[in-house]
Every structure is written in structure tokens, then in C-alpha cells.
Amino acid sequence: MSDSRQFEPIVITGIGLMASVGNDRESVWRAVRDGTSGVRRMSEAFRREYGATIAAPVDIGLDYPGQIKNTALCLKTASEALDDAGIDFQDVDAERFGCAVSGHMGDTGGVHLSDGNTVWQPGAGLPPWWMQWFPNTSCVAVANRFGLYGPRISHSTACASGLVDVMSAAERIRDDQCDIALAGSSEVIHPLFAAGFQAMRVLAHHDDPAQAPRPFDRNRNGFVMGEGAAMFVIERLSHARRRGAKIYAELAGFRLMSEGHHITSLDVESHGLATLIDATLRDACMAPYDVQYINAHGTGTHQNDIVESRGIRHALGPAADRAWVSSTKSMLGHLINAAGSVELAITALALRDGFAPPTLNLTDPDPEVQLDCIPLVGRSNQLTNALKISVAFGGHMAAVALRRWNDAAEGRLTRDHAAAA
User: Fold this and answer.
1) Which tens digits make up the pLDDT trace of 63-85?
2) Looking at the structure, do residues 262 and 361 belong to the same domain, yes or no?
3) Cα separation of 411 and 277, whole Å?
4) Which entry of 159, 190, 239, 396 is annotated as an active-site residue?
């Protein structure tokens, strides 16, 4: 592989998005811009089945009885992303088209469809057991539905999963295993997750459900579980140009690191996160003052918000005073496996429209955070560079730097990429 191909820009050309506040990309983005919350009080039946009193769920029809909701979300957002990218399958090489969709929980809710002894038969009305339990079910379903025969990848890295699979797909493009890929993740509220989070006492509570998630607020008390999905079409620049595709942004830099500290607790000094941010910016050839907007992990737990803000300040130094930071979990809830991809989609749309979304419910900013977290109302400005951070249980940390693509027809190049095109 030539150096020019290896270092050619990788760009986002399609986005599919669904969350509690909307059933497609633009409706979700409008709601997030307006500071609309998708968090609501759930019915008693929902509470009994899923263990969540307040949540931010998504309503979506299933293709067949027993279909995993994760799969339905992935298929819908993948279709939207492909349409948005203007993919003509007669004009792309399916064997050079990758698919990276994060792993997910199995469907315990479907167990009642079988007595445990039933042998699955086609047309019997029961989904095969592997479609209920394999964590890569949605990845397989997406790749098979659209006939994608390039690298097929599915990671499970907790709350970093959505970012990790986008990054993994980009690496497969970088190492020339494919030219284009679908990448993303989904999440649904699962009773086992809900029970675990309840036991950890990290789920938020408030008399008004919409005010429960309060990232960076002095009175925060945890997060709310949410549902949704985001899928991207990403491709090398020359491939996008050949198709005449519009371009949202360049995946300018991305890095993974781990924090060998504790399964759930974070290093209070935040050395690992600061190192991750610094490495990501160096990969993107960005300086700290280049970062205008950061979509934070921002769970609304006391530990995360303090440690994350400390890591941002350590990495950016004085430039942290000029950066805008927000957590859209304040509106959408915590989408666990899908948090990284959904929030990356919002970050790309923020660059597209020059609008940084707010942190809802931030009425009493925690003085320990020491960042401008865009309380209550979003802000307009010409945004060029942004950062998305994910900090997950198990020490998984991921960050992606995006650079706005001002004019797809103009084909703006960055760094030393002129020769690559």
C-alpha cells in the first residue's frame, strides 16, 4: 500500500440517527438543538419488565415477532445513512465495503417464546436462538441486508463501543482492507443492565423526570438509561470524490487508551484521559487552541464529571477556557453501547451547522468542573474542530477529533494530504 493511500483523509458522508427525541437524523438534531428532553416517567408495566422508573426509550416497529430491538434500530439507521450518503450499490465494490457494528446484550424478553425444548424450524414463528443471544447479531443483520462483504467487525467495549467500532472501520480503510464502511451501534434498555445500575446506585432520580439527568450540575445524582442508534458511512476521500458525495467532516484523528485502575472507578488525577486527548489531537495535527467544541462523556455521576473535566483541562491547558463543552446525555439519557456513535453523530451535525448543543438542566454548575459546559441553551458559532470523548467501565477510553468539511465540491484538504487525492 502506498503512503499516499495510507494517509489519505477518511471522511463521513452519511449519518443515520434515532433516539428518544426523534425517529431520524434531522428530527433528533432539531430536538437536541432546542434542548428537548426525551426522558419521561415509564408505566408500571415497563418498570416491572425493565426495572426502570424513568428512561428515554425509542418506539420502533419490529420486522418479525421476537426480533431484537437492537437489530431493528441498526437496520433503520443504516438505511438512513446509506440513503444520506447517496450509495448506489451498482457503483461500489461490495467486497471493499466494510461493516462495524458494536455488540449488544441478548434478548431475555424473547425467552418466553420458547419452552426451552422447542427445536427451531423455519416458519415456526420463533427466531433462531443465535439471533437472540449472539452479541454480533445486529452486525451480521446489517451486513447481510445490504450485501457488504468487506471486513465485518463487532466490538464490546462498554460505553466506548460506539466510538470504537467507528474507529475500527476507519483503521480497516487506513490499512487498505476496504474503501468504505458502515459503522455504528445501538442500545436498548435491558433489565440486566437496569438491575446492575440500580445496585450501583448510579441511576438518577427526580420528581420531574426530564430534570433527572444533570451533567456537570452541583445537584446531579446519576444518569438515566436511554435507547437509540447511530450509523455512519465513512470512506476514503478519493472514493467519496469519485462518487460526488457530500462530506460532513473528516475523521481527523482518533486514539484508544486504557486505564488500569478499577472496573468502574476512574483515576482521580485523570492522567490517562489527558494523555488520550493529547494523543488524539496530535494524530489530527491539532493544537489545544484548535478545539472549539467537545461533546463530553458527561454521565452526570459525581466521579465522571469531575475526572473528565480535570482530564480536559490537563490536556488543553489554558485553551480549556475557550472550549465549549456539553453533554447531550442530559437530553437523550445514557445510551451505553450506542453513546459514542450517537454523540459522534451530534458532534458532526454541530460542525455542519455551526451550533454547539446545550447541557440541559445545568442550573447550578459545579465549581469543581471549571469548564464552559453550555448551560441550558446552545450557541451558534462557526465551528471547525471538535472532539468526542468516551470513558467506559473496564478502563476503555476513546476519543475522536473531527474537522469540518466546509465545501464538499471544493474538496478541502488538510495536513499533507494534497498528494493523496
Assistant:
1) 877 788 999 999 999 999 999 99
2) yes
3) 27
4) 159
Question: Which residue is catalytic, options 104, 190, 239, 297?
Answer: 297
Query: 257 vs 161, 260, 261, CA distance in Å?
Result: 13, 10, 12
Please count the structural domains in the chain.
Answer: 2
Q: Given the C-alpha cell 460542525, which residue does it identify? A: 351
The answer to whether residue 415 sits within a structural domain is no
Beta strands in 214-372 (DSSP E): 228-236, 249-258, 293-295, 324-326, 355-356
Residue 410 lies inside a defined structural domain of this protein: no
Containing structural domain, residue 162: 3-108+122-243
Nearest Cα to Cα of residue 25 among 103, 79, 92, 90: 79
Buried b (16+ CB within 10 A) or exposed e, 236-273: bbebbbebebbbbbbbbbbbbbebeeeeeebbeebebb
Q: Considering 190, 239, 334, 396, which one is annotated as catalytic?
A: 334
Supply the CATH number for residue 382's domain: 3.40.47.10
**Residue at which a domain ends, from 218, 243, 268:** 243
Which cell goes with 34?
A: 432546542
302 counts as catalytic: no
Whether residue 232 is found in the same domain as residue 272? no
Q: Is 317 exposed, middle or buried (0-12, 13-18, 19+ CB in 10 A)?
A: exposed
* Shared domain check, 275 and 295: yes
Beta-strand ranges (E) seen in 332-377 are 355-356
Is 297 in the active site? yes
User: How many Cβ atoms sit within 10 Å of the Cβ of residue 193?
Assistant: 18
pTM of full prediction above 0.85: yes
The HSE-up count of residue 206 (CA atoms within 13 Å, CB side) is 18
Is 420 within the bounds of a domain? no
Contact status, residue 313 vs residue 370, Cβ threshold 8 Å: yes
162 shares a domain with 16: yes
Q: 256, 345 in Cβ contact below 8 A?
A: no
331-386: pLDDT as tens digits: 999 998 899 999 999 999 999 999 999 999 999 999 999 999 999 999 999 999 99
> Per the domain annotation, does 409 fall within a domain?
no
